[in-house]
Design goal:
This protein is mostly helical. It is built from 10 helices and no strands. It has helices at residues 16-20, 36-42, 48-59, 67-80, 84-96, 101-108, 120-134, 145-149, 154-176, 183-191.
């Protein structure tokens, strides 16, 4: 490692080629690079397949939440945990899924509540994600009512909770091992050009 190269994490991460060989073609988090979080998870060969399957179910399989909404919840949840890796990554992934640039910036700056034109559904999702992450022991049944009013049934509420729970978990992995933001994600955030999946 050269003196000017920043360590990606405090543990050794498998290389992109090694990890890509384990992933199905067209993996939704392949943006022409394999994010360091996937490589961190893959570093434990026994746990990786099960956690990868959970991420696939929670984030990508059809359900009550769209992909944009899931990435928004993930970004808000990670921001509450002060996890720069997860918050910035999933804010940028939110842009990939059509998320508004102003909302992306606001989530990173902990000011999503100030975004004008935020739909009642998005506001309810962000509010619940924030409280369930920041003060989970203070969540009460009434906190779910805004989503219930919008038509969320038990299964839909559970989907929201699973996204929040997953990113509380992943934020601890990222923060606990000093995971550094992927250069391409950082460049997208600084340059304003969204990440793209390979054609």
């Amino acid at each position: 490692m050269t003196a000017d190269r920043v360590r990606e994490a405090w543990i050794a991460l498998p290389g992109e080629d090694e990890v890509r060989a384990l992933l199905p073609p067209g993996h939704p988090y392949d943006f022409g690079f394999i994010p360091a979080m996937i490589r961190l998870v893959t570093a434990h060969p026994r746990i990786a397949p099960f956690l990868g399957a959970l991420v696939q179910q929670v984030m990508f399989e059809p359900g009550a939440l769209g992909l944009r909404e899931r990435e928004m919840i993930a970004a808000v949840t990670a921001a509450v945990q002060d996890c720069r890796y997860c918050a910035d990554s999933h804010a940028e992934f939110l842009r990939v899924e059509g998320g508004d640039a102003a909302l992306v910036r606001a989530i990173k700056q902990h000011r999503w509540r100030d975004v004008e034109g935020l739909s009642p559904r998005d506001r309810a999702l962000c509010t619940l994600a924030e409280k369930l992450s920041a003060t989970p022991s203070r969540v009460v049944e009434d906190d779910w009512q805004p989503l219930r009013t919008l038509g969320f049934d038990d299964a839909a509420c559970l989907e929201v909770a699973h996204v929040v729970g997953l990113f509380n978990y992943l934020a601890r992995l990222a923060n606990g091992f000093g995971l550094q933001l992927d250069p391409a994600t950082l460049a997208a955030a600084e340059g304003g050009v969204p990440l793209k999946r390979p054609a």
